[in-house]
């Protein structure tokens, strides 16, 4: 049987960092990966590219939502034909995984090699969890349906915040093993082997077309001013859950990775086909006027909404 491990966690919690470590830990195994992002561009799939690993990319919605669930089913069926030992699934940050059991039951008659659902690992951002946990049902469901929780970014907060974060996690899942760390540095194989069974009672997912956060794509066909990019990101970041993508600047190609006000821009030397940013709004459609004003102010159509 092919073992499925689901990796969940809110936007910017460290899922992709964990996925890289997961792939390194299982590099001697035959592995497939499904990467899911809300926006049109799948930045995580690019950063996870690794020789010999089969990666299925699913964009523009949650794999647990009707909007792209059929594509998710198709990817699982396709990977079942590859005689894999593991399939690792990185869900989008706003995914509600409470219908994973129903999904796997649905595809059972159509899979070549059967799947065994090993469980879910939820990555929690210690720096933002207490601000978000009681406002987003998807975040609560991610913890409820996890067999292990990793409290990441512990270096950014004090012990009192960590203790309170653990206390809140226990409200949603009292028995789950909790690992506190930074940069997702953990004993991955130990975590995988000690995943606990979770409540698999079928529920209607909270991921619906109506509940999807407003997501926008910005594209560029030219070289941008790095300094103007920094000013632009600082101006809009407070109104976003997440900004992520690749751009060409006068200081070279960069990977933009922002979570709320925490903006990170780092060099990226691998080839990228499209230079674009995915922006996930935390203020709904109200962000459009902000985006338009700041794009006009800093880029004069060099970076534009599509």
- Helicity, in percent? 25-40%
Inertia-based shape: globular
Main β-sheet, in a few words?
7 strands, parallel
Low-pLDDT sequence parts: none
CATH H-level superfamily title of the largest domain: P-loop containing nucleotide triphosphate hydrolases
CATH architecture of the largest domain: 3-Layer(aba) Sandwich
Number of discrete domains? 2
- The fraction of residues assigned to DSSP E strands is 25-35%
- In whole angstroms, the N-to-C terminal distance is 43 Å
Q: What does this protein look like?
A:
The protein is an alpha/beta fold and 306 residues long. The protein has two domains: 2-193, 3-Layer(aba) Sandwich (Rossmann fold), CATH 3.40.50.300; 215-305. It contains ten helices and 13 strands. It has helices at residues 15-25, 43-48, 69-79, 100-107, 129-132, 137-144, 159-172, 188-193, 226-236, 287-298; strands at residues 2-9, 31-36, 54-58, 86-90, 115-125, 148-152, 178-180, 215-220, 240-249, 252-259, 262-267, 276-281, 303-305. A seven-stranded parallel sheet has the order 3-2-4-1-5-6-7, sandwiched between helices. A six-stranded antiparallel sheet has the order 11-10-9-12-8-13, covered by helices on one side. Strand 10 (252-259) and strand 11 form a beta hairpin. The radius of gyration is 19 Å and the shape is globular. 42% of the residues are buried. The mean pLDDT is 88.
């Amino acid at each position: 049987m092919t073992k499925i491990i689901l990796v969940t966690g809110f936007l910017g919690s460290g899922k992709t960092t964990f996925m890289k470590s997961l792939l390194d830990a299982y590099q001697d195994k035959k592995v497939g990966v499904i990467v899911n992002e809300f926006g049109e561009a799948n930045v995580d799939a690019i950063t996870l590219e690794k020789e010999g690993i089969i990666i299925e990319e699913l964009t523009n919605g949650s794999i647990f939502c009707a909007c792209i669930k059929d594509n998710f089913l198709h990817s699982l069926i396709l990977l079942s034909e590859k005689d894999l030992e593991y399939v690792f699934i990185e869900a989008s940050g706003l995914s509600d995984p409470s219908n994973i059991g129903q999904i796997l039951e649905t595809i059972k008659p159509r899979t070549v090699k059967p799947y065994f659902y090993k469980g879910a690992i939820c990555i929690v951002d210690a720096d933002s969890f207490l601000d978000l946990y009681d406002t987003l049902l998807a975040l609560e469901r991610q913890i409820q349906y996890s067999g292990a929780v990793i409290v990441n970014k512990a270096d950014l907060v004090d012990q009192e915040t960590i203790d309170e974060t653990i206390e809140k996690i226990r409200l949603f899942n009292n028995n789950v093993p909790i690992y506190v760390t930074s940069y997702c540095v953990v004993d991955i194989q130990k975590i995988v082997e000690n995943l606990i069974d979770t409540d698999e009672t079928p529920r209607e997912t909270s991921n619906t077309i109506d509940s999807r956060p407003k997501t926008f794509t910005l594209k560029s066909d030219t070289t941008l001013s790095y300094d103007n990019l920094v000013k632009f990101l600082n101006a809009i970041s407070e109104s976003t859950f997440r900004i992520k993508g690749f751009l060409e600047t006068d200081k070279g190609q960069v990977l933009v990775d922002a979570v709320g006000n925490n903006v990170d821009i780092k060099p990226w030397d691998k080839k990228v086909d499209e230079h674009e940013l995915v922006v996930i709004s935390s203020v709904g459609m109200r962000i459009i006027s902000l985006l338009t004003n700041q794009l006009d102010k800093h880029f004069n159509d060099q970076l534009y909404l599509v």
